[in-house]
Write a structure and sequence with these properties.
mainly alpha
């Protein structure tokens, strides 16, 4: 159980750190610029929206609707490259971390490594990308839209500084939601991989326990049916073998 505890402990520790929030995400991953993500474009978006008169989705003409939709879409589009960069860096961090855990398992000797089990773990690695990819982009695109109720309430406001301030706050809120979503998905990716590794190690432990039990049963059956003289001779040979097998299994687990 030594290796199991070691792997589980470091993975859970890293997962807890990532899962605590956004600043979170930058401090844990070491990705530069997360705290400033989207801030410059936020001001530009708020400036443009603040000059728009009251917008009512049901009665606005096509041109007005398209213009406002373009402003909101542009905010997401302008942040797209940086969002993809942050997502990709998060993916690489988790993948590299997972690869190191797999490397530890591969380096284990004897019964600690089963090719089928390791293949399943390696195949599960692809889930990391699927879990994290889109963590920032998708919330931004969904919220920065005339179909979002909170955004629409701001668009209904009269043009002016109050509208600008409300839009600035909304943009900041949406950005933080997207980054928190990324932190949550990074945590989920780690938890999923840890669960797979736990299952792998538990299966190995169960198999080793069965192997030891079988070896012990064979030994007991053999000694009980042997002659007294043969029994003593065989015990001298078999007892060390069973003890050695037990030691090797314990060493493998550690």
């Amino acid at each position: 159980m030594g290796l199991f505890s070691f792997l589980g402990g470091i993975a859970k520790g890293f997962g807890r750190a990532v899962g605590t929030g956004v600043e979170w995400l930058g401090e844990v991953t070491g990705i530069q610029g997360i705290k400033n993500f989207g801030q410059g474009l936020k001001d530009l978006c708020a400036d443009e929206i603040s000059t728009e008169n009251t917008f009512r989705k049901s009665s606005a003409n096509i041109n007005t609707t398209q213009r406002i939709s373009d402003i909101l879409t542009e905010f997401t589009a302008q942040n797209l490259k940086e969002a993809e960069s942050i997502e990709e860096q998060c993916i690489k961090i988790v993948e590299n971390y997972y690869d190191r855990l797999i490397s530890v398992l591969e380096s284990a000797q004897g019964e600690m490594s089963t090719s089928a089990g390791l293949r399943r773990l390696k195949n599960a690695r692809s889930r990391i990308r699927r879990t994290i990819e889109g963590s920032i982009k998708e919330p931004l695109a969904k919220r920065m839209s005339i179909d979002d109720s909170e955004c629409l309430r701001i668009l209904k406001m009269n043009a002016g500084p109050n509208k600008k301030r409300a839009m600035e706050n909304f943009c900041t809120k949406v950005i933080n939601e997207a980054l928190r979503n990324t932190a949550t998905n990074v945590r989920k990716a780690l938890d999923d991989q840890l669960e797979d590794i736990q299952d792998y190690l538990e299966n190995i432990q169960e198999e080793q326990e069965r192997t030891f039990a079988n070896a012990k049963r064979v030994y007991e059956q053999f000694t009980s049916t042997s002659s007294e003289v043969g029994k003593e001779q065989e015990k001298l040979c078999l007892e060390p073998a069973v003890i050695l097998e037990s030691i090797q299994m314990v060493e493998a687990l550690l």
